[in-house]
Amino acid sequence: MAVPVILDCDPGHDDALAILLAAANEAVDLLGITVVAGNQTLERTTLNARRICSVAGITGVPIAAGRDRPLRGELLVAAEVHGESGLDGPSFGEPTVPLDPRGALELTRDLLRANGKPVTIIATGPLTNLATLLLAYPELSVHIGRIVLMGGSTGRGNMAPLAEFNVLVDPEAADVVFRSGLPITMCGLDVTHQALATEQVCGRIAALGTPLARLCVQLLTFFAGTYRELWGFSAPPLHDPVAVAAVIDPSVIATVRAPVAVELTGTHTRGATVVDLDGRTGAPPNAEVAIGLDVDRFWDLVVAAIAASAVPGGSRRGTP
């Protein structure tokens, strides 16, 4: 039976492929897509979500814009990684799928209340929308089955020495989520850095021979260039689809239970996820922390999703 899912994202190259994976795989019932500022401004990330759904033929899935800044402070974007549009590389026409008139908070509230069973929230951007929901409607927690998020790390960061981007953008929001008491699976850099879009992977996607496959290769080519320039990676890690894959097939990742705290005040460590792997603090575990990835299985899922999305009707999910 398909898992009902709300995907909260900030597209973003890797978010784009996370949308394709969530929409195309029959293990997921994609109820809605909510968008947050992160990789780029809210205006641009919202446009990018509509662009991806348009080119992939994803209809019947409401898309709603959420928070345009973190709970505290100014917005940090990743233009040096994702470009000025947030989705640099391919050329896009005007999107054909509409923006839902409700905001992300209202859409998520309505979807949680309307669904007959607990909903999984997959969060692949800063956790501002999710924290806003938990603070505004704490009674809705009973309708959330679990949270699967891309963010954090057990060690080094990417946008700061110890902080991963999604958490660094809004540490206060991440703190709210990790202290919520809800079941959480954290897919951080430890596991997403194993999901490298190598030349072989890009060749598999290109071999599909569809316009959407060509667009995905263009996205990954641009993404590869920024990762090579900024971090010296030989191939770019496809972070966000790992969280979606973990919902589709939990065996794709290996996890350990551990306490996770978010550093809010450290001069050099703000935004770090402090993962107590050895139980030194005595705090109870509050998350499943992903540490390993079945790389072959992961890429099989992603490539199959791109292939399915190229078939008329193959990626249409969600509710009218």
From TrEMBL:
Molecular function GO terms recorded: purine nucleosidase activity
Cross-referenced Gene3D superfamilies: Ribonucleoside hydrolase-like
InterPro entries assigned: Inosine/uridine_hydrolase_dom, IUNH, Ribo_hydro-like
Residue ranges of every copy of the Inosine/uridine-preferring nucleoside hydrolase domain listed in the record: 5-300
Top-level taxon: Bacteria
Signal sequence range: none
UniProt keyword annotations, A-Z: Glycosidase, Hydrolase
Presence of keyword Hydrolase: yes
Protein biosynthesis among keywords: no
Name of the top EC class for this enzyme: hydrolase
Pfam families listed in its UniProt record: IU_nuc_hydro
Enzyme Commission designation: 3.2.-.-, 3.2.2.1
Protein name: Purine nucleosidase/pyrimidine-specific ribonucleoside hydrolase
Species per Swiss-Prot/TrEMBL record: Kutzneria viridogrisea
Phylogenetic placement of the source organism: Bacteria, Bacillati, Actinomycetota, Actinomycetes, Pseudonocardiales
